[in-house]
TrEMBL record:
All residue ranges annotated as the GGDEF domain in the record: 382-515
Any GO BP: signal transduction
Organism of this sequence: Rhizobium quercicola
Keyword entries, A-Z: Membrane, Transmembrane, Transmembrane helix
Name the record gives this protein: EAL domain-containing protein
PAS domain: residues covered: 226-297
PROSITE patterns: EAL, GGDEF, HAMP, PAS
Amino acid sequence: MMHSVEHRFVAIVCGAMLVFVAPLIVLFLYLSSGRIEREHLANAEVMLDAGAKALAKPLWDFDTEAMNQIARALAADGNIAFVKVTGTSAGLQAAYPVMDNETAGQHAILSRDIVYYAPTGRKSVGTVELHVRTGGLLSRFGNDELVIFSILIVAIAVVFIAAIIGNRITVIRPLLRLTAAIEMSRLFGSRQRVEWESDDEMGALVLKFNEMQSRLENEQNALRRAHARSTEIYNLTPAMLFSIDLEDRIVAVSNFWLSKTGYAREAVIDRLFSDFIEPSAHESYHERRIAAGLQNTCEVTVPFVKANGETMTVLIQETMTLGHGQTEDAALAVMTDITALKQAENRNQVQAMTDHLTGLLNRQGFEAALDAGIRKADERSGELACVFIDLDRFKWINDNFGHAVGDEVLRQVVSRVRANLRPEDTMSRIGGDEFAILINGENVETLASDIGDSICAGLAEPITVRGTELSVSCSVGIALYPIHAENASDLLLKSDIAMYARKHGGKNGKQMFDTSMLDAARERHEIAQYIETGLREDWFEAYLQPIVGMSDGRIVGFEALMRLNHPEKGILAPARIIGIAEETGTIGRIGERILEKAIGHLAAISRLEGTGETYLAVNFSPMQFETTLPHKLAALLLKNHVAPSRIVIEITEAVLMLDSPDVHAVLKQLGEFGCRIALDDFGTGYSSLSYLNRFPVDIVKVDQSFTRSLTADEVDVRRKSRMLIKGIRTISNQMGYDTVAEGIETLEDWELLKKLGIDYGQGYFFSKPMPIGEMLKMLESHSEAKATTG
């Protein structure tokens, strides 16, 4: 290997000699040989001509001796191999030397006729034949040519040897020294330098090599110092550091790692890291890099077994290093003890899935239980039921008795419901007063129905809290898997829909889900969207219906009625809008919008002659009775220059049933502000008479159901309706309240109510509810209602 450069050099020189010099020598020999051969033949021609002339006289004279003498003279030449003289006379012939047939083919044969010029003329007396030697290339040369050729060969050999020696001195020797220095550096790590100085390329190469060795030595020393510092930092860092190879074998660990795990260094080096984690976590540990994808870092949480047998949960964060082949050569990892954090996380997870008040599962926990229940049901091809419970009067209890009483009610409700459940049934608290139960088993539909009946019966009994009996009923919805739903969220939704269907159907009972309920749910969702869009796009309008005096038919006021005017569907049913708005909580925003527009309409009407004393009656939902209501109303009245005395606040029994301090405070402030209070739909509630005594009421509105009963077909119904209306009018007048009858649609209704002493009335007989534009046109063209002619 060390002489390969010299071998290649010799091979190159030899190749050059063979390719270039040898052909030139052969060409030289060939050309020189041809020249010499031509010279020999030319000399032989001359000798042949001279011999032919010399032999003419002896052959004419038959002088055999002279003939032989001349033949021998011709054969004496070194280039003449054979001489043959043949006379025309028989027996006259000479040949020197005796011819060798084997070499005859190597000679060039020259012959001449021997002519004797006799007095009688030209006479042919015989022929002479010379065999001239041709031979090989070298055989044609003489001594002089051979000497010159030998000198040429010697010169070439000298040049060749000189090149070899020069190459060895100028190239091979420094290369050998460089190779030796490199080998010493490889074997012993020392940076050997080469002692060689020259002004050629090899000298520059040696100089660069020595400079490189010096630089590498400096860098090596720096790396040693850096490695020493890194090792020191690695071992002194207060973190459990370790390194693993491609096969997940431990190649290094920090002192802190050893102190925290209790192992000795020699006990862990070259062992698989998976040997120290629990078998259940082996798969997740081996798949950690796959889970990390193309990222250069990965992390995994596994249980690690310490030297004393204890297990700690550790978070391993690993960074992979890449080699030249772009594959992982090694990984540096840090191991963090997160045992306490994991325990806290488990506690938090339990808390996150548990209701703190009742100890039941919350919505998140119940959904997880539903998922697990569905998987088990699928495995055994079984069914399960979801029972959704909503308390009917819990909000009223919370608002009137406080949250402490409400919490106690919830706890007692849970206790009563659990008494009707089996140990394997799962109960949860979904929301404030909403509960859900997971039931599985054979004939689950009948089982869930029976449980629903038992729950309703159990909650129908009053609950005693702090000496007070409270009535709490419930609405129950039931949905079945896989009959009604395909997954957990859908099952919970279907049971919720069934519960709402029961609540809208009269509360206090159970309802099995039916697909027809989806249409109602979709309708509620569609209307809820219309409400949101209507609030955003200003689809809501305040229609006005006149309130007239029963005696003279003159307009004394207007009731503001909410209408949602859809750009495509037109006016939507107000009762449906109000019911869904109260469910979704948007009724307050709708009420504010209608109040603002209605007061603006009253201001526009007030600019007409004779309408300055008319009032505006506005219906208020229980959700609107907030402490800020008087301030909002005052701002609107001030903005539109309307006196508070011209505003009538219409409230229903639902508002009065709240009987909360906030409602009392708001009504008191409105009364002090100058507004009047009207009790709407009077006579339909079971405790309306008590409300007249407990709340500051100014106007009593007779429900339209009594008005319609005045003209009923049954005589007894007509009689009782007149007695009830007369009684309401009597009580109201004695307490100083005005009475207003709703739903007057015929002249007969008007005349009967007028005879019964009702003060004011409203209905389609006088006018239907109108938008402000139509109302202004009607008021401008008529100073009185159309029905005054009756």
